[in-house]
Amino acid sequence: MMSEAFRLIETGGDPRIHLALDYSVLLPLLLSRLGLESAPFLSRYPQAGTVLKYLDLDYRLIQRQVKEELQLEKQQVGSSGDPKAGQFESGTAEDRARIVLAELSRLEQRERDHATQTKRTGSPADRSSLLDNQIFRQELTTIIVVLTLRCRRPIIDIQSLIQSLRAVRDPGALIYAIVANNPTEFSPTIDTLLDSDDRYSNVKDILPRLCKLADYRTWDVRQRLVNRKVFPNLAIELTIEHCHDEIGFMNRILKGQPEWLTNSRGPVTRTSMTSIMEFVFSSLNDELTSDHPDNVAINRLLRILSGMVGLMGLSLTAEQLEISLGVLEMSPAEPCTVNFKVCLILMSAAQLLKYSESRTRRILRQLLDCADSPQVLMLWIYLQSKLMPKIDEFASRALSMEIVVPRMGLMELVAFFTTLFTDKELASCALGFGRPTTSSPYKTNGSSAPTAATSSIKYTSSSEASELRSVSNFCVSHLLDRGVFIRSSTDVRTWVLDQIQATDVPLDDNMIPLLQAYTKAISKSERITRIPEHDIRTFFANPCQDLTPAKVLLTLYMLLNNEVCLENLGLDSSSRNREYDATLLQYVQIRKVLLFVQEFQGGVAFKAVQPMFLKLVNSQFPELFDVSTLLLEEENRVSSSAVIQSSHSPRRRASGLSFMTLISTPHATSAESSAWVETHYRSLEQHLLYPEDAIKAYYAFQRLPQADRQMLAGSIVQMSLPSLLDPESDPTVMEVFKKTWDQLNTIMPHDLWAMTVDALLPRSSNSFLPLNFMTTVPSSSSQGGTGGSFQQHNQLPYQQKRKDVYTFEWLVQDPLLLFKVDPRVFRTPTIFRLFIQILGAVMVGSRHWFRKQFTASQAILNSHQNMVPIQTQKHRVFKESNLTALLYIQDSSIVQLLFEICQRRPEDVEEALLAQQQQDEAAAAAASSYSDDEFHGHGHSHGHHQRNRKNSTAAGPSRKPSSQGKEPHLQGPISEVLKEIQIVTFNFLHQLFIDFKILPKMIHFQGYSPELLPATLAGMESLHVCMDFLHELLFATPAAATILPAGPPGGVNGTSVTSSTGSMLAGGPGAGALASSSTGSIIAGDGGIVPNGNMPSAAAAAAAAAAAASSSSDLTLRLFALRLSVLVCERYPLERTQEMARNFILERMGAFAISSNYSPEVLDSAKILARAFPSMHTEIIRVLQDAYGQERQRELDDFIESVNQMTSDPALWNKSLL
After folding, report:
1. How confident is the model at residue 829 (pLDDT cuts 50, 70, 90)?
2. Region (Disordered): which ranges (predicted)?
3. CA-CA-CA-CA torsion sign (446, 449, 452, 454)
4. What mean pLDDT do residues 578-588 have?
5. Are 1079 and 1046 in contact (CB under 8 A)?
């Protein structure tokens, strides 16, 4: 009744219409508004007269009197003590009102003073003896209520008054009466009480009284308690007594603020929890016994029960446990029900296992068999892996609350789950959910994995299916790691391929661990089989098509599989048979996949897998990570090529070769590519006549879709390259072709490199096969080798089963094959840059291939070492040092060939000096005693064209050696073409020397054409390392100087070029011998270490022949060493080099002058040294005077005169750093 009366007044209703309501508490408000005349029914309340008496007072006068009294108290004139009860008892109504108002003002002032302090003591001195007087409590309440109605601020503020009433012993009745007569102050009063809960010890008593005053406001009061996270017991009490929505309220609290129930500020009591628990179990029992249980209600009750047991640690009674087990045994209708059931088992595991272990076991088996419900399987994985935080995370996510699962129950579940399921059950469960609705069309041979029944649940969205596949990937990967599938003889090959096929972006985080676990399981047991290569090729039926996330993951799987196989070499020889061949990864175009990973959706889609992908590709295909190539790709990516428009309408000449016959791909071309063929293909053939049309054709090709560019790549390269070697080719056409080539190089480098080399071969040599081709195939197949480069040669994508062209596998096994190309390549700078780029990639790939073969052979040797006698093992072993020496032999041969390419030829000398050079050829040959016999010219060249050769790129006539086998020393400036060739070569060698710091020493101990020394020292800054071994080079003995063979196996494009790989491994002509004076041993051709004293007769004969050849070139190497030393001093005129010159260069200069029969080369070197260090010219002259006799005095005098004239120039001294 009171609540209805309050609601009526608050909403502006007329109490005179509702006379039956109780208005006793609202009497002051109603009398002040209506008066007794208008509402005579109020006279029935006895206190009406008292209320009217105080309402009729003059409160303006009372307020002035109180203000004066308070001012006097501040001035300490009047009495500052509390009014006594006697004064209140004997006073008139006006006096009593004044006394109460003054007391309230004092309390309010005292409250403000306390608010400014940092610590509130709440001492008894703060109490009001008048307001605590129980005799006058009724009248005091009436006066205070009337004061709130008649006196307004600044004398009376209701919220300040309520705050000051904390000094009253029992302020509940006063606050109740104040709020009842001031309905608008209900909500502010609730906030004031909750904000000052530390001041009121009885707020929990006041709030229920106020809720009874306005029970329709109870939901609002409870929400304020929830928002402030205070008084949970009061909220539960209000819920049970007023709101009656226990289930909904507890669900909201447990989901959003479960910590509120356990905080230190008034945690919920077990009494309140018991009340909720009784209601929950009563509701569960009703659902359990119902013929049509409400699954939604059951889920809500299970969630509340799980949260309360977990948070509060409640112990369930036998009756409650029986009800819990009965509900758990009910068949779940949806996966979320399984979540709540598993959570209840986790929270009360110890109690359930103690009550009935058999029923708990039956329940878990039932939950494991639920369709698309992996919760029990995930719980098994977490428990076996001791991942307790993961279990807490699972429970918190399922219950939508932060909760910690009781550890005691988990420890019992760990032991319980160990024998709960069999491996077969776990494997079947893991493969049964999350499977794509349509199986993969790429069927494999053999038995398929046993799976559970197909799920009948239809996903409401693709996100649910993706999430379930992610959980399935997680479970299968962990079961693979724990060997469950191996022990149960369950093959997951088909399942993994289906998961890969169903992959989409964003990429599932659990897919990568799945592939890693799968590849490791393959290497551990034959029961887990790899995905057959046939299925992979079917998946990549057309490598030119656009890539998908599934293709990326399948490529990643192959890389991971190969990585695991390499790690397991020697541990299990059978794992060698499971490695995917490198040609298969080249077939899927690994570079294109890598580019797709880096650029698809801005690199965000595969951000998680990109580091691993880069690492694997770098370890298995290091040739793809060339810095120059990557920079070119970045430049091509950010730059836009402008299409050159031409208004020229050229005449078309008949083509002798149909372009369509050159298309080697079996896949159908698109409309864009067909239009390009019809419009532009003849322009490439006629680029010499119509270069602008060819440029437009290349730019149009660059704009074609990627798939079309891949399909037409072989045709473009085969048609363009041979004709671009023509000296009349337009440089712009060549540059545009190089941009096109660079664009193709970003997506199909291996195929493009093979295409380019094949196109550059002379037409008479395009059917050449490597010498070691026939020996490589059986050796690879017999070992089941990793390389096995030719085991599946009939499946190469570019060659299409043709065996008359080069492949990348041949090139990495024998990099010297690259130098079989048309010799015009070496005088065509644009094409030569492509040649150098391919050469660098092939050299990196060759080193990787040889080391991979060496690792494989070592693993096979180790696996069979017990079957071979110890003596045989020591004789046949091929050590790491042998492999390193072999690779350096190969690299040094390549460097020597590049140096030979950089040597000038007659056609490289400018026209102005060519005639004079020919006239003085005979005289120069007779005057010079120095020979570069070790460095032969090209064996094949084209005829000399009698035309302007300023921009010529063709090779001239071959240089013919003199009768003594020596070539003339060409003088004069070289052509711009050769300068550009040298720049490209020296830049390449500079980086090579930085990567392999021993290579410069090896090359300079072998020697090369002295005419290149000034250019090499100026073009390769890395040759400053020569200062470190100049002493060794100058004092080297003939045996020590032949660290490696003095020259390359043969000339560029010469027929004597032998294999640098297979023949060297087999001890053939290219193997050579590594002689060392310090070790006293020779590395023989078969890889064995043979002491000098025990050398076989054949090897001894070969060594004798080599020694004879070495003695003839000893003088040449000494003069080369001297020239290198003085040029280094001239290039680096430092104190260190000057000290070197004084200590041993001058000494060796005198000795070389005598041993070389006073060769002019010695005097030339001395002049260079004097130019480098003018201050040493007297020392140089003195050394030469001691070496030269009287018969050479004239030559010496001419030298002294020229040196003195040179050193007398002040400019020379000014240029010198010393």
Report:
1. very high
2. 925-971
3. negative
4. 78
5. no
Mapping DSSP to helix (H, G, I), strand (E, B) and coil, where does residue 637 land?
helix
Q: How many CB atoms within 10 Å of residue 264? A: 5
Helical residues (DSSP H) of 218-334, grouped into ranges: 218-228, 232-238, 246-256, 270-289, 295-312, 318-328
What DSSP assignment string belongs to 1172-1199?
H-GGGHHHHHHHHHHHS-GGGHHHHHHH
pTM over 0.90? The answer is no
Nearest to 1050 by CA among 927, 1128, 1137, 938: 938
The dihedrals phi and psi of 1089, each to the nearest 5 degrees, come to -95, 115
Output the six-digit token pair for 871.
């003596």
pLDDT for the residue 1111:
55
Strand order in the sheet with 1081-1083: 1074-1076, 1081-1083, 1089-1091
Contact 720, 737 (CB under 8 A): yes
Highest mean pLDDT: which range of 566-570, 678-682, 701-705: 701-705
- At CA 331, angle to CA 327 and CA 334, rounded to 5? 105
- Overall residue count recorded for the chain in this entry: 1218
Task: For residue 374, count other CB atoms closer than 10 A to its CB.
Answer: 23
Helices (H), 1067-1192: 1097-1131, 1135-1140, 1146-1155, 1160-1172, 1177-1187
> What gap in Å lies between CA 42 and CA 34, rounded to an integer?
10
Residues 6+ apart with CB under 8 A from 441: none
155 near 66, Cβ under 8 Å? Answer: yes
Phi and psi at residue 1066, to the nearest 5°: -90, 5
CA-to-CA distance for 1214 and 1210, rounded, in angstroms?
A: 6
In angstroms, the CA 528 to CA 521 distance is 6
Q: With DSSP H G I counted as helix, E B as strand and the rest as coil, what are the percentages for the chain, rounded to 5?
A: 65, 0, 35
Give ∠ CA 610-614-617 in degrees, rounded to 5.
Answer: 135
pLDDT tens digits along 614-663: 888 888 888 887 766 666 666 655 554 333 333 333 333 333 334 444 44
DSSP assignment of 831-890, as one string?
HHHHHHHHHHHHHHHHHHHHHHHHHHHHHHHHHTGGGS-HHHHHHH---HHHHHHHHHHH
Give me 1054's structure tokens: 């010469």
**Backbone dihedral region of 313: left (phi > 0), alpha (psi from -120 to 50 degrees) or beta?**
left
Give dist(CA 730, CA 695) in Å, integer: 10
pLDDT at 986 over 90: yes
State residue 1162's pLDDT score: 87
Biggest distance spanned by C-alpha atoms of the chain: 157
Intra-chain end-to-end CA distance of the chain, in Å: 115
The residue among 977, 922, 930, 931 whose CA lies nearest residue 955 is 977
Joined together, the tokens standing for residue 786 give 């990793």
pLDDT score for 198? 55
Structure tokens at 941: 């060249």
Q: How far is it, in rounded angstroms, from Cα 148 to Cα 947?
A: 119
DSSP H or E stretch at residue 1090: strand 1089-1091
Q: Can you read off the two tokens belonging to residue 1148? A: 């060796």
Pair 497, 535: CB distance under 8 Å: yes
Find out whether 320 and 281 touch, Cβ atoms under 8 Å. Answer: yes
Strand 1089-1091 with 1074-1076, pairing = unpaired
CA distance 183 to 214: 10
Low-confidence winner among 28-32, 688-692, 1042-1046 (lowest mean pLDDT): 1042-1046
Show the tokens assigned to 179. Answer: 């709020």
Task: Please tell me the distance from the alpha carbon of residue 214 to that of residue 222, in angstroms, as a whole number.
Answer: 13
Listed ranges 147-156, 157-166, 1038-1047; the one with the highest mean pLDDT: 157-166
3-class secondary-structure state, position 1088? coil
